[in-house]
């Protein structure tokens, strides 16, 4: 049952969030948009730190290791992984006419789908790690951590 909740809650949250885009299409004030983007980025950073980085540091310290090293290594590997994907996957951003990544003859809509997918990869991995930690009954991870991260999408 936890697997179903772990799949449904992020799905419903993402669906509701994308529905607001269609309802507010071309009607949102640019200042409100910037405020909402700033709020969303702050929530995402907070969820990443409190649900992933701090528990990682605490788990390493409990094992008698230097706590920040595994978290820092994982963070750096994540940066490198996303930079590689950003340079390999052909994608295009909404307000841009310039293609990024490897050159291809894909349609603009296909490249925008790739851009959204590239954005969602780290979030999906974070949710998966948190929920799998709760399934193996790791006391540091619980379903609420995965749900918090899924709502920050």
Task: Output the keywords.
74% helix; 153 residues; 5 helices; mainly alpha; globular
Approximately how much beta-strand content do the residues carry?
under 5%
Main sheet makeup: none
Structural category is mainly alpha
- Flag low-confidence runs: none
- The domain tally reads 1
**Would you report the number of β strands?**
0
Average pLDDT number: 75
Task: Walk me through this protein's architecture.
It is a single chain. The chain is mainly α. The chain has one domain. The chain is 74% helix and 0% strand. α1 (2-23) runs parallel beside α5 (143-151) and α2 packs antiparallel against α5. The relative contact order is 0.13. The model has no long low-confidence stretch (mean pLDDT 75).
Helices and strands in order:
Elements: H1 2-23, H2 30-62, H3 68-88, H4 108-135, H5 143-151
């Amino acid at each position: 049952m936890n697997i179903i909740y772990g799949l449904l809650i992020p799905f419903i949250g993402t669906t509701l969030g994308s529905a607001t885009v269609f309802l507010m299409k071309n009607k949102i004030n640019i200042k409100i948009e910037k405020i909402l983007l700033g709020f969303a980025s702050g929530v995402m950073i907070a969820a990443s730190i409190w649900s992933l980085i701090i528990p990682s540091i605490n788990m390493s310290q409990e094992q008698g290791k230097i706590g920040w090293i595994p978290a820092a290594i994982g963070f750096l590997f994540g940066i490198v992984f996303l930079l590689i994907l950003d340079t390999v996957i052909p994608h295009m951003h909404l307000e841009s006419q310039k293609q990024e990544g490897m050159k291809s003859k894909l349609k603009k809509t296909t490249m925008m789908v790739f851009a959204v997918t590239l954005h969602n990869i780290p979030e999906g991995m974070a949710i998966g790690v948190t929920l799998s930690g709760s399934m193996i009954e790791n006391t540091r991870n619980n379903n609420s951590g995965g749900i918090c991260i899924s709502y920050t999408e």
